[in-house]
Every structure is written in C-alpha cells, then in structure tokens.
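Posting this for the archive.
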Amino acid sequence: MKRSIRKRDGQQWINDYLLKVTGRPVHYELDSRLLPTQAKSMRMVSKYVIKEAEHAEHLAKSAENCGDKINARALFRVASEKYREAQHFIIPPNSSTRWDIYAKARICSQRMFNLLDYPIEQVEIPFEDKTIPGILHLQPGGIKAPAVVFIPGMDNTKENYPNPLDNEFHQRGMHVLAIDGPGQGQALERGIFVTPDNHVVAASAAFDFLSKRNDVDESRIGLSGRSFGSFWSMRAVADEHRYAAVASAVACYYWDLLTIFDEAPIRFKQVFMDMAGIDDENDFDKMCTGLTLKGHADRITCPVLMCIGEFDPLNPLEDAEKVYEALNCQKEMWVLEDEFHSIHSTKALCGQPTFHFMADWMNRALNKKLDEKLNRKIFVQKDGRGMYNQ
C-alpha cells in the first residue's frame, strides 16, 4: 500500500478547507477569491476552471469569426490563462492529462498572438542535449533594440507573462524573451528537471540566442524574474556576467530561511518536488541546501533591483535583506508596506502592476541612467510615499 510521500502531506485536508473558505489554493492572507465557488478541494479545481476556460475559448472564437479582433484576443488571453491554471492542479502532476490541458493553453495563446499588433515568435533555445522553449515578443519593424529575458515562477509558464495586451517592457521599447526554464511548463513536459543551478545554464543559453540576432542590442540585455524566478534570475547573474541588469519581484531571495518549503502550505513542496523529478523527501531536502544566494550574491556585477512585500511569508524580509547587503554592485530594493508574497497589484501603487515600475527601472538601467553609486533601499508606504522620493 502506498503511503504519503511527504511528512506534511497529511495536512492536505487543511489546505482543502482553506481553499473552500478563501477561494485560494495558497496565499490565504489575501482577501479576494480566485477560484470558482464550486471548487471545494484541490482535486476539484481543474474541473471547474476548465469550464471557465471553455466558456472564454468559445466566445473568443465567435468574436474572431465576427471580425471582433480586439475582444477576440482578450478572450483568447482569458482562455489561455484559465487552461494554464487548470493544468497546474492535475493529480498526478506529471501526467498526459495535464499536458493535454496545457496544450490547449498554448493553442489559445497562439490564437491571441495571431491577432496582436506586434510580432511574436515561438523559439527553441539549445539547452544541454535538448532545447527549452521560449516566446519572443518583438518590437515592430525589425529595429535593433534592448531585450529582457524573463524567468517565470514555479507555478507559471512562458505564456503567462508578459501579457501581450499590456506588455510593460515592450511598451518601453524592449524585446522580451519569456522562457520555460528547467522544471517549468514545456521544459518539464520534456523531462528537463530543475536543480539549484541549472537556470544559470538556461539564462546563458537565452543570452547566446538573443546575442546572435540582428534585431537585439547585445550590450543591452537584461534579466527579470517573478517569484521563484527572482531567485533563479539572481542566481544566474552571479555566474553569467554578460547581462546588463537584473530586476525581479514577488520575492524568493533566499539566504538562510527556506520558509516556502518549511512553513508555507505543503502545496509548494509538492509542486517543486515534481519540478525536480524527486519523489524522496530526504533527497529533496538535501537538494534544497543549494537553494541559497549565500556565496553567490557578492559575485553579481550588474545593477540589481529587488522587490518584496513587507510581510512575505515565503521570503521573510530579514532573509532578503541579507542578500541585499551582500551585493557589491549598483543596487536598489523596494519594500512594499503591509504586502505579502503576491505584489502584482498593490494599494501603494494604486493597483498598477508592480512590473510597470520595474520595467521603467530596467529601461533606465539598460540605458545606463542609474546613479553609478546606487545603493537605495526604500519603504513604499500604502499611500505611495517613498516610491519617487516624495
């Protein structure tokens, strides 16, 4: 008889109850509901989110058939995001059922891409003896421009961000290459598992890929990441010094405290063990000793922007501050008052996406408009004070 893999798997009933009450699979400290009210447990989520995806996809196709391009692409975006969310809840996680749903997310994304006002390319980037997939958002006209490589978080894929309908970096004149790194999206489907440092290899490969293009300014390529992508992007630039800047948010800047696996809901550990291809908890815990920026942060040479919520339960502020203090480069840190892990849309910034502000910082960094002695840690209050030194 099979027993639970992890010591804390027995807490699943607690997670199910909290999902029922809050409408959230994690991040219970936030107020708004995310999931359909019919979903009363983790296993129920996919069924009802798929229904929402099918609704949006049907309406998108109808809009496109009627020549309503703008609504069609918006609806294909909704459908893609719903399918992407639904596949993340499939049990067992590495199954054909999951990948069939994820394929629908990619199909809807491509239907949206076909209706956009700027070009997008689906690309493959050499990685060891395989390739990792990417989505390349291009400036129109084939102009030579700066570029940003984006690494998603552990529950996201390259289709999720940037949103082509509101692409922060693209609006500021930058190409964007979003990748599925090791353990993510199609890379995981291909059997490319995550290790503590193989996102360094992926980031180097992405830089090589972009640097060979005539429409990319090799001297102005930045790296960005969200959630666990914030860790991977920082870890990458510690070894890959060709990147001109790194900016990230939704913090996973780990030094000593890996609270995401030790104190947060067990779902984080369940998902990451699958991403790593490890089914023995002791082996996984040993691997996790490598998930630290200690001994790496001091080797970063490019400008750094770190963004974190004041009370992030997955990355305690005092741990992230140790990473910041270890940096010997141009550096800036934004701490958003009373915010938690998800700082996508905050009261301090009037609900505007944090990445819009980060993209502006990246634009200045790639154009060498930062103070040469930059060392700025700001506390952004809920009324916005602090963001612009006011």
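Strands lie at 120-127, 130-137, 145-151, 175-179, 216-226, 245-249, 304-309, 331-336, 375-380. The mean pLDDT is 96.
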